[in-house]
Write a structure and sequence with these properties.
By secondary structure, the chain is mainly α. About 50% of the residues lie in helices and about 0% in strands.
Length: about 325
């Protein structure tokens, strides 16, 4: 067999190289299954030659095959001692399961301009729809709310208001005792005409009853959020009246005592302040006074210009005459 090894040295080296590459590619420890099978085959063939069960040419080829198998098997064993590229080295312990970190929340899209505008004016009372023949009724329609604040008051607790009148008042946007408690004489006159029983509200003292049911908070004007108002805040507001003598804003038609108080709280004390306002400032003023339409504030401005110049309007003359009769 030593003779065969010298004669076929290059072929044996090639078989060893093939086994070396195969063992390296098969991973650490070599291909144990194939090597064990080759070892059994090699032992069986070697037994045939050793016990001379085959002779002559057959024995020659068997001995040659034994040499090739021996070289190949040696290459597999040696190649298996080196891990192939990219193979992880043996770990001391099996790694535990990886904890998945929470993914960051997806960024919310920027709110649309219309949505932002809607949120800004969310607290602003919406203008109530007009009723048939509204302008023909005497007095002034009170400001209403499109829906009740949280829960509507039981207006039937006021003597003189039944289920039918309560429904008609809610159609005007009147849901709370505090709203009725804030009515001016002009509002009372208008609602009386609307309900088709003028003078009854005064006789039954709805405003007084509503103020008692609403509690002390009904006497205090509701705070107005400047951020919720439309238009431009007037630039000629005053912390107090000039010389401590405010003009009688009630001489302007539609400006009752409650609205006059709101205007004073805003910083409007004199006719000339209203007369000097621009269009956007008038819008602000209208919204400050229970979300009235700007056209109402423009009528206020027209009368304020006359009163600021020392003139009189039909309403101011009637108001002064009415006050004079009361003093008598």
């Amino acid at each position: 067999m030593l003779y065969l090894a010298t004669q076929f040295a290059w072929f044996l080296f090639a078989a060893f190289a093939v086994g070396l590459v195969f063992g390296w590619l098969s991973g650490s420890g070599g291909p144990r299954g194939p090597v064990a099978g080759l070892a059994i085959l090699w032992a069986a063939l070697a037994a045939l030659v050793w016990f001379r069960l085959v002779n002559d040419q057959a024995a020659f080829w068997i001995e040659t095959a034994l040499l090739y198998l021996l070289a190949y098997g040696a290459g597999c064993l040696i190649g298996g001692l080196f891990p192939s590229e990219g193979e992880a080295l043996p770990a001391l312990a099996a790694p535990g399961p990886r904890l998945a970190l929470p993914l960051p929340a997806p960024a919310l899209p920027a709110p649309a301009k219309q949505a932002v505008a809607a949120s800004v004016h969310e607290a602003e009372p919406a203008r109530m729809p007009r009723v048939e023949g509204e302008d023909a009724l005497a007095g002034k329609r009170p400001a209403g709310l499109p829906t009740a604040r949280s829960a509507a008051d039981n207006l039937k607790l006021i003597k003189g208001i039944g289920p039918q009148n309560e429904g008609r008042l809610q159609a005007l946007g009147i849901w709370h005792f505090s709203q009725i408690a804030a009515w001016t004489p002009e509002n009372v006159e208008w609602v009386g005409a609307y309900l088709a029983f003028p003078g009854r509200i005064e006789r039954e003292e709805w405003v007084k009853q509503a103020a008692a049911l609403a509690g002390p908070a009904a006497d205090a004007p509701a705070p107005v959020s400047v951020a919720a108002l439309e238009g431009k805040r007037p630039g000629n507001l005053l912390p107090a009246a000039r010389g401590g003598k405010p003009d009688d804003l009630g001489l302007i038609e539609g400006v009752g005592s409650d609205i006059a108080e709101k205007l004073n709280g805003l910083g409007i004390w004199h006719f000339d302040q209203i007369a000097a306002l621009g269009p956007e400032e008038l819008r602000f003023l209208a919204h400050h006074a229970d979300a009235l339409e700007r056209e109402v504030a423009e009528r206020w401005q027209a009368e304020a210009k006359i009163l600021a110049a020392g003139g009189q309007t039909e309403h101011s003359r009637a108001a002064k005459s009415k006050r004079g009769k009361r003093k008598r």
